[in-house]
């Protein structure tokens, strides 16, 4: 028997001004996307902005539905849009921001498990790490250098 420890390293920025200029701009795109969320049920609005290697920024926001599971998270709206419109263009970075209408979230809000799995698929498909930056409404921002740092023991096509 053997114990296995899995560790991960993230970078934490104190505020948006501390981010590199290009990422500040990407996060601003995510903030604008967040304002377009359709979240009448949860009142929780999420925005995601992807920077593609061709310089295009693709954004998404969560889109809810009266039949709750029919809705989709912001991150998947964005990456599926990128996959549909730019299938052979690599994603370099993703910026995510989320907040409730009921209170201002000031801690970094990471992507949910289903979104991590979806981002993992794209990272493996493009064979290049995707940097992920996530924040609440404002305040600290966390960064992972790769989706792999957010999802240990990824299920992927090698198991099929
Ligand atoms: N949501 C996202 O858009 N991304 C996540 O990673 C977590 C959750 C959305 C789904 C739903 O519309 C609302 O936030 C509350 O869960």
TrEMBL record:
Substrate binds at residues 62-68. The keyword Zinc applies. GO terms for biological process: nucleobase-containing small molecule metabolic process; pyrimidine-containing compound metabolic process. Residues 21-158 form the CMP/dCMP-type deaminase domain. The keyword Hydrolase applies. InterPro entries: APOBEC/CMP_deaminase_Zn-bd, CMP_dCMP_dom, Cyt/Deoxycyt_deaminase, Cyt_deam_tetra, Cytidine_deaminase-like. This is Cytidine deaminase. It comes from Kordia algicida OT-1. The lineage of its organism: Bacteria, Pseudomonadati, Bacteroidota, Flavobacteriia, Flavobacteriales.
